[in-house]
Design a protein that fits this description.
It is built from eleven helices and no strands. It is mainly alpha-helical. Helix 1 packs across helix 10, helix 2 packs across helix 8 and helix 4 runs antiparallel to helix 9.
Length: 286
């Protein structure tokens, strides 16, 4: 930690945000591979359960005290809002409107914490705001697809609900106080498991994944947990908007892994999005 003291706070937030983006990108890649052979809801439930176990072990290892009510509240709220965002996102994607739902939800998820940060922390520097704008455009291109999607009102509602849920998740994590980190994240994970499990029970769509796909889900859960930790630390080290924008570049990690490992073709728009993300980082970090 002494070495980190020589790194400017804003640079450190960017580094931690990018670490969160890389972890979440890897988690989404693993989860995407797993959902081809298992129920997407069960994949998310298991990844969240893995996170709850890992974070509980870390909390016990570091002898972290149980969180105060406000930290526990924000942890539960983060888990619930993130889960509702996932339900809305998956429902929108299942309707075959990925070209609309995915990028719009990603952009809304970024804008909400940025507005929250501007209201409570003041406006960032002009060049950083310009970087935010470039990053939002880049996220849209990266998360979008080349398919021509006919937009319906219901698709927009689902995308907005998903983005709103993810945005509230980011804001909630940013409310954790410095004396408690692991236990609030445990509460978030458990809240997500309970809500999603209740949802699949109501739908009566529980189908356990096969043994061969379970290791992939566990690895995805480990990376997802890492993303949560990096993001939570980033929000405590600096501004919420910088942490959110840099962390929200995680679709870039997902598509790059798909390109490298699965040899999937990236569209010119996605390559443009990756380039815009790199340009945005230069404006945000200076």
């Amino acid at each position: 930690m002494e070495a980190l003291a020589f790194i400017p706070a804003e640079i450190l937030v960017v580094i931690l945000g990018l670490a969160a983006a890389a972890s979440w990108g890897a988690a989404d890649f693993g989860g995407g591979v797993a959902t081809k052979r298992a129920s997407e809801y069960m994949v998310v439930i298991i990844t969240q359960a893995v996170g709850a176990v890992l974070l509980s072990a870390l909390a016990l290892s570091f002898s972290e005290t149980m969180p105060a009510f406000d930290n526990a509240f924000w942890g539960a709220f983060a888990g619930i809002s993130g889960s509702l965002g996932l339900i809305a996102l998956y429902r929108g994607l299942s309707r075959g409107r990925m070209g609309v739902v995915a990028p719009l939800s990603a952009v809304v998820a970024v804008i909400l914490p940025v507005l929250h940060s501007a209201f409570y922390e003041g406006l960032p520097a002009i060049h950083q705001m310009f970087g935010f704008l470039i990053a939002i455009v880049g996220i849209w291109f990266i998360a979008g697809t080349t398919e021509k999607a006919e937009t319906h009102f219901d698709d927009l509602i689902l995308a907005l609900l998903a983005g709103f849920g993810f945005g509230l998740f980011f804001i909630s994590i940013g409310q954790f106080s410095g004396d408690s980190l692991f236990w609030p994240l445990v509460i978030a994970k458990l809240s997500a498991v309970i809500l999603l499990l209740s949802f699949v029970l109501v739908k009566r769509s529980i189908k356990l994944p096969s043994r061969d796909v379970l290791p992939v889900i566990i690895v995805a859960g480990i990376f997802d947990t890492g993303g949560n930790l990096f993001f939570a630390v980033a929000t405590q080290m600096g501004r919420l908007d910088i942490a959110t924008v840099t962390s929200s570049l995680y679709p870039g990690g997902t598509v790059l892994l798909a390109w490298l490992i699965l040899k999937e073709h990236l569209s010119s728009k996605q390559w443009l999005g990756v380039g815009l993300a790199l340009i945005a980082l230069m404006f945000i970090s200076v």
